[in-house]
Amino acid sequence: MANNDEAEARHDEPGAAFSDFLLWLATMAAVQFGDLPDPATGKPAPPNVEAAGQLVDIIAMLQDKTAGNLAPHEAKLIDELLYELRMRYVEAQQGGRRIIHP
Predict the structure, then answer these.
(1) For residue 58, what are the domain limits?
(2) Which residue in 5, 10, 58, 77 has the most C-beta neighbors within 10 A?
(3) What is the pLDDT along the chain (102 residues), one digit of tens a residue?
(4) Domain membership flag for residue 98
(5) Is residue 49 part of a domain?
(6) How many angstroms separate the CA atoms of 29 and 77, rounded?
(7) Dihedral sign for Cα atoms in the order 22, 26, 31, 37
(8) Strand pairing partners for 44?
(9) What is the pTM of this model?
């Protein structure tokens, strides 16, 4: 029974919502890079590298502001997202390829 209580406590932690928020920001960055279709229309959107870069900066700001206060899985997620998005930003500035192929 204790395992169920622990599982429920983890499910109710605000960390799950924070992870979802990070993933949402990363998805919006992918839309701005032109890697995913616009969720409102379902159609490909032209790349907006400046807007994508701003979203990457927002995620980096969240990393700085939450340093030392994240669960290990959240810290790992934000590190990995920032690495991938920063690499994509460099590629996009050079007219690079997509990182997500729908």
Answers:
(1) 15-93
(2) 77
(3) 444 444 444 455 554 589 999 999 999 999 999 999 998 999 988 999 999 999 999 999 999 999 999 999 999 999 999 999 999 999 998 876 555 555
(4) no
(5) yes
(6) 15
(7) negative
(8) 37
(9) 0.77
